[in-house]
Amino acid sequence: EVQLVESGGGLVQPGGSLRLSCAASGFTFSGYAMSWVRRVPGTGLEWVSGINNSGGVTTYADSVKGRFTISRDNGKNTLYLQMNNLKPEDTAVYYCSASGYWGQGTQVTVSS
């Protein structure tokens, strides 16, 4: 059974940082590209970042480029998203995704 479990969300002030993690199981993690996607309340899903299976290629939405860093540890079957200089508009539920599978999400709230 494929499982993706996100963690690391929380409440942070503007300009702060958070590191999200996504623990994967039930599939060969190192064989799949992974993504982070977010859902802002009242709006649809927004793709945030992607990484290829080896971790050598990363891509970012313009809205987070230069502030967020995606990475993965294939030995630990874990995906990460380092989020720096957070803004109120980054407030959302963040999901990791692989090949059509989704986790339950972790809430990130950026507010003073």
Structure description:
With 112 residues, this protein is mainly beta. The chain is built from no helices and 11 strands. It has strands spanning 3-7, 10-12, 18-25, 34-39, 45-51, 58-60, 68-73, 78-83, 92-98, 101-102, 106-110. The strands form 2 sheets. Strands 2, 4, 5, 6, 9, 10 and 11 form a 7-stranded mixed sheet that branches. It has a 4-stranded antiparallel sheet with strand order 1-3-8-7, with no helix packed on it.
Could you tell me the number of beta strands? 11
Class derived from helix and strand content:
mainly beta
Overall 3D form: globular
Strand content: over 45%
Uncertain runs with pLDDT below 50, 5 residues or more? none
Q: What is the CA-atom radius of gyration, in angstroms? A: 13 Å
Helical element count? 0
Major sheet characteristics: 7 strands, mixed
Note the gap between the termini.
40 Å
The H-and-E topology, N to C, reads as EEEEEEEEEEE
* Mean pLDDT over all positions: 96
State the helical fraction.
under 10%
Brief overview, please?
This protein is 0% helix and 52% strand. By secondary structure, it is mainly β.
Descriptive key words:
112 residues, mainly beta, four-stranded antiparallel β-sheet, 11 strands, 0% helix, globular
List the helices and strands and how they pair.
Elements: E1 3-7, E2 10-12, E3 18-25, E4 34-39, E5 45-51, E6 58-60, E7 68-73, E8 78-83, E9 92-98, E10 101-102, E11 106-110
Parallel strand pairs: 2-11
Antiparallel strand pairs: 1-3, 3-8, 4-5, 4-9, 5-6, 7-8, 9-10, 9-11
